[in-house]
Amino acid sequence: MKLYKGFKSAKNAALLTNRKLKNHILKKVKKGKPLKESEKRFNKLEGKTRFKVERTFGGIKSWFKGGRARYRGINKMHTQNLMEAICYNLYRSPEVIASNCKN
Questions:
Q1: Which range marks the domain in which residue 45 is found?
Q2: What is the pLDDT of residue 5?
Q3: 14 in a domain, yes or no?
Q4: Is 18 a member of any domain?
Q5: N- to C-terminal Cα distance for the chain?
Q6: Where are the alpha helices (DSSP H) in 7-73?
Q7: 23, 36 Cβ separation under 8 angstroms
Q8: What is the domain count for the chain?
Q9: pLDDT at position 70, please?
Q10: How many helices (H) and strands (E) does the chain have?
Q11: 41 in helix, strand or coil?
Q12: pLDDT higher than 80, residue 23
């Protein structure tokens, strides 16, 4: 069984329960049924972590056309992903260094 989307569903909850994992999947608004205040707080807290991960993949996808298989074979694709990650870190490093400098 695989995860379906990045939001709450019965299939995702069952999969996580079977594997004895905590459910940190964001809650989704249904038509005509707004989220409870506790669900909004949960989404906000979990979204902070998700943002950091999603931003990384989004940057790789937009800057380096990542998310597209250019090679066949797991070893070649692994190398492609490593190279994209290295490039992302090099691209972001001046900004990270500058933000950590004291004025």
A1: 35-100
A2: 65
A3: no
A4: no
A5: 52
A6: 10-18, 37-64
A7: no
A8: 1
A9: 87
A10: 3, 0
A11: helix
A12: yes
